[in-house]
Amino acid sequence: MKSAVIFSLVCLLLIKGRVMADDDAWMTLSQQFATMNAEIQALKAKTSQLTASNNITVAFHALSTERQLNATAQSPIILNHAATNIGNAYNTQTGVFTAPASGLYNFQASIMRYQGLGRGNANDYIRGAIYVEADMVAMTLSDSRTGYFDHGSMHAIVHLDAGQEAYLKNPDDKAHVYFDDLRTPYTTFSGFLIKAD
């Protein structure tokens, strides 16, 4: 009988040890599960954020409704008609594009000089430039002194932070007259978001 009691006690101790070991394993597994669940939730949130940022569409194409664009020295060339303005980031009153999201942007612009506008004065050539904030990122020249019309174009791919501004500008210290026509737009400014950050 004594040996049966000892055997029962040993069995109880072994079972208790096994249960305690199972409790420790259960606690460890429970903690690992909670950690993995938190990581999964963080990854889902990051995926949603990346998906939302990649679904941003920004594009504009601006031109003028006026035949002559008078741009004073060192000032933006204001194109008052946005044929396309997805995202409403181009302001037709100021001629300034404001980036709604950080990312890589593509800009292009063209200018035209018509000899019939200002014939015989020093403005028979004009320059235009694309600026990001105060920095020139592209420039072109249109020189109608050797012909009736002359056309220049430029292109830039730049990274902008949200809120940064880009615009077409007369970079010279003298006023210029740019040629345009809504039916046949020669002086234009366009851009689009290639990829958001």
From TrEMBL:
It is found in: Secreted. It comes from the Eukaryota. InterPro entries: C1q_dom, Cerebellin_Synaptic_Org, Tumour_necrosis_fac-like_dom. Residues 1-21 form the signal peptide. SMART domains: C1Q. Keywords: Secreted, Signal. Its main location: secreted. Residues 53-197 form the C1q domain. One of its GO terms (cellular component) is extracellular region. This is Type 2 C1q domain-containing protein 7. The lineage of its organism: Eukaryota, Metazoa, Spiralia, Lophotrochozoa, Mollusca.
